[in-house]
Amino acid sequence: MVAANLTQLFVTFINGLHILDYNKLLDAHGHLSVRNRNNATTFFMSRHKAPALVTSPSDIVEYYVANASAVKLNPPGGFFVVPVFDISQCYHNSDTQDLHVRIIPLGAALASRFSAGNSTESLPHYLVVLMQSHGFTTCSIDIETVVFQASYSQIDAEVQFDALAIHHAFLDSNSNHREGLVYLTQKQSTDSWATEKWTVQRPWDFWVREVKVSPLYVN
After folding, report:
1. How far apart are CA 202 and CA 7, in angstroms?
2. What are the CA-CA distances from residue 141 to residues 75, 147, 186 (Å)?
3. Roughly how many angstroms between the first and final C-alpha of the chain, as a whole number?
């Protein structure tokens, strides 16, 4: 029986998976994970299924944070690793070098990219970390905000890519102009997120509706 206080978490978790799949932020091998609210030493992640096909709590497996092993013996087949940033500098010669986290030191190396030093703040300094040859990782206080960040990280990357392409094309045709792109200042970025983070529920409700009316997803 699923604990009452985890039921809504699992509903949100499945909706999050479907939204990420619908927006092509996860492929069939991608996944979402969330810490267990009742036990800080474990987390939940879907079993060995494509995100679009996860439909119920029976598709969700509890794992230990320390070594990514399943809490229950003989669980449904699951993802045995956690995707990570470029970890080539963290490997020892004897390590399996498949760009996945299997042990605590590699997880700590990824976590260190989010905050400098031994920060004790509730949120990291950076909410998104790019992963060499892999993609990106984003973290936040809840699933809704993580999905929001993932979606708009991709949109922002596409905008920046297009801006750079236009900029380089302009420079090629106007050799006397060497102005660079104008980016947000640190304060503009910080203040903008302070405003926008309160609007997460608006796109979330829309995305939930999108995946609920699609026959592909079972929520």
Report:
1. 22
2. 27, 11, 22
3. 18
Written as six digits, the tokens of 8 are 């809504």
DSSP element (H, E) containing 45: strand 42-46
pTM of the predicted model, to two decimals? 0.61
Domain coordinates of the chain in residue numbers? 4-213
SS3 sequence of 151-202:
HHHHHHHHHHHHHHHHHHHHHHHCCCCCCCCCCCCHHHHHHHHHHHHHHCHH
Tens digits of residue pLDDT in 57-87: 999 999 998 878 889 876 665 544 333 466 6
Read off the tokens for 5.
């206080």
Please, which residues have CB within 8 angstroms of residue 77's CB and are 6 or more apart in sequence?
47, 48
Backbone angles phi, psi at 54, to 5 degrees: -75, 125
pLDDT tens, 167-198? 777 766 666 666 677 777 878 888 888 888 78
- Paired sense of beta strands 128-131 and 135-138, if any: antiparallel
Please tell me the CATH superfamily of domain 4-213, with its number.
Answer: Class II aldolase/adducin N-terminal domain (3.40.225.10)
